[in-house]
Write a structure and sequence with these properties.
mainly alpha; 60 residues; 0% strand
Length: 60
């Protein structure tokens, strides 16, 4: 029996499966980061910057 072809096919299937898992993880991470950035509003960032400026005035 010729088993070298079978080993090559199994290796290709293994790499294909790994690629599917990696692409799925990247997709999920991308969605997570998009959701996270939408939770931080510009109002909160502006208030934080104003508080930092206020604290900075105490050290001048």
């Amino acid at each position: 029996m010729d088993e070298t072809g079978q080993a090559s096919a199994e290796l290709i299937l293994l790499f294909g499966g790994i690629m599917v898992v990696v692409l799925l993880a990247i997709y999920m991470y991308n969605n997570y980061m998009g959701d996270l950035s939408s939770e931080i509003s510009s109002k909160e960032v502006n208030e934080f910057n104003n508080q930092l400026k206020t604290l900075g005035n105490y050290f001048k």
